[in-house]
Amino acid sequence: MKIKKLNTAPAIMLTLYNTLSKEKEALPDAERIKLFVCGPTVYDYAHIGHARTYIFFDFFAKYLRSQGYDVFYLQNITDIDDKIIKRAVEENKQPLEFAKFFTQAYKDDMRSLGIEMTSDKNEAKREGKILYAAATAFMPEIIDQVQRLIEKGYAYRIDGDGWYFDISKDADYGKLSGRNTLQAEDAVSRIDEAVGKRNKGDFCLWKFSKSGEPSWKSGIGDGRPGWHIEDTAISEKFFGPQYDIHGGGIDLKFPHHEAEIAQQESASGKKPFVKIWMHTGALLVDGKKMSKSLGNFITIRAFMEKYPPEVLRWMTLMHNYRMPLDYTEKMAEDARTNLNTIRRFLWKLEFNLKQETFKTKSVLLDDYDYSKFDAFIDDDMNTPEALGFVFKALNDANERLSQLDENALRRAIDFIKKVLKLFGVNADYPEIPQEIKELAEEMEQCRVNKQFEHSNRLREKINALGYKVENTNTPFEPFIYPG
Ligand code: AMP
Description:
Layout: E1 15-18, E2 23-26, E3 32-37, H1 48-66, E4 70-77, H2 82-90, H3 95-112, E5 117-118, H4 121-127, E6 130-134, H5 139-151, E7 155-158, E8 162-165, E9 203-208, E10 223-225, H6 227-239, E11 243-249, H7 253-268, E12 274-280, E13 283-285, E14 288-289, H8 300-306, H9 309-317, E15 325-326, H10 329-355, H11 372-378, H12 383-399, H13 406-422, H14 434-448, H15 452-464, E16 467-470, E17 479-482
Parallel strand pairs: 3-4, 3-11, 4-6, 5-6, 11-12, 13-15
Antiparallel strand pairs: 1-2, 7-8, 8-9, 9-10, 13-14, 16-17
Residues 38, 40-41, 49-50, 52-53, 248-249, 251-252, 280, 282-283, 289-291 line the site of adenosine monophosphate.
């Protein structure tokens, strides 16, 4: 069935930086944008570096949908790998059970960040969720792809070890990272180490079974997959040999994504494997990449003990997705303040609308151009510039507040709500506790009676309870908000 774009074609042209061409390019013209993002290797809880990458791509998919595109977003989960086996053995656990536990933890963490995943293709399509595919559930596809590489002469066997990809057979090898086959030797990870390789940078496609390690029966020898092959086997199953956009953190550009290109283009003979390669910059700690292996990470769970999940979303999107980002606690504090400022202004506008204060205002012709926001996002997802525009628009609205008529108020409210929804944060005015409302009423009474000292004491009490009160021109109807 042909799936149509939801609305008419978008008016503004979205451009994306393509790591492959090193240029900004137009979003591929497709009925349905096929987006694949590398999922995690599940041997520990996900950290806020992972969150940076996944929040960004979630935002990207949601933005495309909001612009009328149909998006098929697929993510693999590496649930069999050297690192998983090593850690499971250290903790005296069975590797596949160990990986299952952290797969569930990852899905739970994503859900708490507002990122919904499913293993049901129809549900993914119907509800705009990520379709996740754990490697161990796709062994026939993985084995089939290795088999084809063997048949086409790209793979060779090392007895007692496994099947390896011969990078010298692929004339295009290195086109993503700019490294040639000689420079590829630092691609070698533990699984790629073997005696008898043709080139140092050759990587493992299939590792023959070793006692105590999980393995799968196959005609190419019982064993388990190499890291790179699972992604291409999974994307080929759902998307075919070519698709639109591949995403992941910049650390995966080499060797992982280079290997993916080599595998898929060699297996199918079709080029390009992927039209646009998008990479997020690393989240750093003291200049070093936050990573499970370095142990310098803050889990998403630990972060959320201090801050609501939307602060992590906001913090991520306040910064340009391609730039490295050195995490500090101040960054989270700034994000919280920034988000609260926008929300408070929204609630104030809503308050003014409800109070019908606009009826007493002089009418201003409202032609404020809120569409500039989209233009910033359309320039390679420039969220910090777009947020800069939001703040400018809010300042302008604030300055014109005494002149805004009903239409202008509604337009400003709709704009801020749209932004908050797109960024995946809650825009609802919170329920104010009865105790606070009563204190605010008493405070107002004191103010009207000119008992200013007592009124100030009550204000301090309200502040200490985590709320603020702004007096308005209408007595007994103050604007109360958390803060
Ligand atoms: P891993 O589980 O290490 O394979 O990582 C899964 C995804 O998260 C990949 O796309 C990584 O590039 C990304 N990622 C891991 N650590 C970071 C980090 N510190 N900053 C940004 N992205 C990261």
